[in-house]
Amino acid sequence: MWDMDVHHLMPGRDYTIDVQGEAGPAQPGDSAVGDNAVRHLFHNVNEGLLKTIKTFSTYISLLDNYETSTGVAEVVTPEEIAENNSFLDAILATEVMRRAHEYLLKKTLAKPNLTDFKHQLYDIWFQLYARKEGDRYV
């Protein structure tokens, strides 16, 4: 699928990463795995290129749509719903997602109609869920 993606970025040219080691294992009862890296993973990314590729640019527009704190109610605006749909439209127009859809159809895990498949993806990726026990959609 990587090779099929005509828009995949090239390591060393379009981005550079700084691999500093591995995160330690999660301990029983921990809510997160500790990150011992002192620097960012991505050293360099060609952001100008990202903005010219529809799948990336529509994904980037989603990044400010979410409340990162648990216990704080999530508010979904009409603009955010439109951004979610634009992202799904962009990825569903790619050969990669067409191939993924075909694979899921063979496994009877996807709806055959692309519109129904889009709704299925929307529900999986964008419907709200409780992140804190006892709360609804936070």
Main attributes?
single chain; 138 residues; mainly alpha; two-stranded antiparallel sheet; 5 helices; 2 strands; 38% helix; globular
**Euclidean distance between termini CA atoms:** 34 Å
> What is the strand arrangement across the widest sheet?
1-2
Class derived from helix and strand content: mainly alpha
Helix tally equals: 5
Rg calculated over all Cα atoms: 18 Å
Low-confidence stretches: none
- Order of H and E elements: EEHHHHH
**How would you state the average pLDDT, rounded?**
88
What is the global morphology?
globular
Largest β sheet strand count, sense and barrel closure: 2 strands, antiparallel
**Number of separate strands:** 2
What percentage of residues falls in helices of 4 or more residues? Answer: 25-40%
Please state roughly what percent of the residues sit in beta strands, choosing from under 5%, 5-15%, 15-25%, 25-35%, 35-45% or over 45%: 5-15%
Descriptive report:
The structure is a single chain. α2 runs antiparallel to α3 (78-92) and α3 packs across α5 (114-126). By secondary structure, the chain is mainly alpha-helical. The protein is built from five helices and two strands, in the order ββααααα. The longest helix has 15 residues, at 78-92.
